[in-house]
Amino acid sequence: MTLFESNPQYREKLTIWRVLSLLPLYGPLAEGHIWRWFAINIPMDIGAESNEHFTSDIDLIAKLHDFPNSHEWIYKTWEVKVSLLHRDGRVSSLKAGKTKRTITQLKAYRNFGAPEVTLLDINVCEDGFLLNNQYPPEELIYSSHKKAIELNLEGFGYQILPFEHGKNGEEDIGLMAFRNSPFVPQTAFNILPSHKFGLRQPFSRLVDDINKFHENLGDIPRKAFHQIIYCKNCRQFQLIDMKRVQNCPKCKDDLIIQT
Prior knowledge:
Elements: H1 11-20, H2 23-26, E1 34-43, E2 57-65, E3 73-85, E4 91-92, H3 99-112, E5 117-125, H4 129-132, H5 138-154, E6 157-168, E7 171-177, E8 189-192, H6 203-216, E9 227-231, E10 236-240
Parallel strand pairs: 1-9, 3-5, 5-6
Antiparallel strand pairs: 1-2, 2-3, 3-4, 6-7, 6-8, 9-10
C-alpha cells in the first residue's frame, strides 16, 4: 500500500518515518546547519519528573550546530500534521478547523522547555498531482495563511513540506518535490521562524538522555544518518535506519503501530 493510501490511524507516523528515511526531505529541515541526530515520536515523560505532568510525544527533534558561527548546539522541535493532495486537485485531511488544538499541542512543547517550536505541515501528494495541478492549491493557501497568523502571535515557527511518489502497483517509487525553478527543487517552505524560547527543563533533561544514548553507541558508520526512536514496548531508545527498519531491534515490536 502506498503512503497516500495508508491507514489514517497510522498515516502521521508513517509519513514522519518516510520523511526521515529520505535525505532530500529531512536534510533541508536542518536549514543548512550540521546535524548530530534526529529523533522521532519521543515521549515527554522520559524527561519529566514525577511532579511534572507531561504526557504528550514530541513528533520530531533535531540537534543542530551553527558551525562556524556558534559553538552552541541548537535543538529544534516540530509538531507534524499531514494533509493529502489528490490527483484531481482536491485537498483532504487539511485540519483547517483544528488550528486551536494544534496551538495547544505546540504550547505543550514550549511549556515542556523546547527552545524552538515549529508546526510542520506535510502535504502528501497523490501520484500525478504535481504534474497536473498548480501548487499550492487555493484551499491550501487560505488555510496556511490563517495558520500563519495564529502561529505568529504565539511565536511558533511554520514550515510546509510537499512531496509526491510515483506509483507502481501498490508500491511507492521515486520522489518528486515541488520545484520553484526548472533547476532547483525546493523541498521545504519556511513560512515563519520560531522564536527562541530558551532551553529549559524538563526538555533539557530529555535531550541530555538522548545525547548520552547517542554518544554511548560508539563509532557507528554514518551514525548521523540513522534516526533515534523510543520503543514503548521495551522502553529504550533505539538507533535505526528508517529506510530499512520498522521493528525494534531488541524486542521486534512494530514501531509504527505503537501508541
